[in-house]
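Input C-alpha cells:
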C-alpha cells in the first residue's frame, strides 16, 4: 500500500488561492530527500543557489532565476542564499502535488519525440531506452510499439502515449 504524507503548507511559497494541505507519496518524499543529498555537494546540510536549481531540475522543475531567488528568500529569509532539507522537502512536496499529470505526460512524450514529428517511433524508443541504460532488442522495441499503436501507423502518437500512461487506452 502506498503511504502518503499530508504536508501542512505553513512554509508554502505563494500559497494564495491554494489548498495548504497536499499529499505526496513516500516514494516522492524519498526522491526529494535523495535529490537534496545528491546535490548538497559540500555536505553542509544546505543547498546554495546552484545546488538548489540543479536539484529542482533533477526533480522535473525548470525554474527561472528570479523564481529560484524568490524561493530561497522565502524559505530562508535571514540569508536568502540557501535552503535546508526540511524546507526543501516541504517546497518540493508542494510543487509535486500541484503538478498536472496530463501536462507531465505531454512533456515526457516530447522527450521521446526528439525530432518533433508527433510520434514515437521504434528508433525514438530505442534511443530513450539506451539513454536510460536499458538494453532492448529491436524485436522487443517493435513489439512495444505494436502493442500500443492503436491506429496502426507504426508509431505511438501523443494520444496513444497519454492513454498508455493513464491506463485509458483501447485495444
Amino acid at each position: 500500500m502506498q503511504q502518503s504524507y499530508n504536508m501542512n503548507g505553513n512554509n508554502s511559497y505563494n500559497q494564495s488561492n491554494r489548498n495548504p494541505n497536499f499529499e505526496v507519496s513516500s516514494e516522492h518524499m524519498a526522491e526529494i530527500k535523495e535529490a537534496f543529498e545528491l546535490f548538497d555537494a559540500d555536505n553542509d546540510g544546505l543547498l546554495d543557489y546552484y545546488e538548489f536549481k540543479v536539484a529542482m531540475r533533477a526533480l522535473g522543475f525548470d525554474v527561472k532565476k528570479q523564481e529560484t531567488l524568490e524561493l530561497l528568500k522565502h524559505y530562508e529569509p535571514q540569508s536568502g542564499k540557501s535552503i535546508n532539507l526540511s524546507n526543501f522537502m516541504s517546497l518540493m512536496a508542494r510543487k509535486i502535488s500541484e503538478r498536472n499529470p496530463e501536462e507531465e505526460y505531454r512533456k515526457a512524450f516530447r522527450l521521446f519525440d526528439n525530432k518533433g514529428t508527433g510520434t514515437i517511433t521504434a528508433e525514438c524508443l530505442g534511443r530513450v531506452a539506451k539513454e536510460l541504460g536499458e538494453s532492448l532488442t529491436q524485436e522487443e522495441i517493435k513489439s512495444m510499439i505494436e502493442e500500443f499503436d492503436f491506429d496502426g501507423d507504426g508509431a505511438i502518437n501523443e494520444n496513444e502515449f497519454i492513454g498508455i500512461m493513464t491506463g485509458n487506452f483501447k485495444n
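The chain is about 55% helix and 10% strand. The chain has a mean pLDDT of 83.
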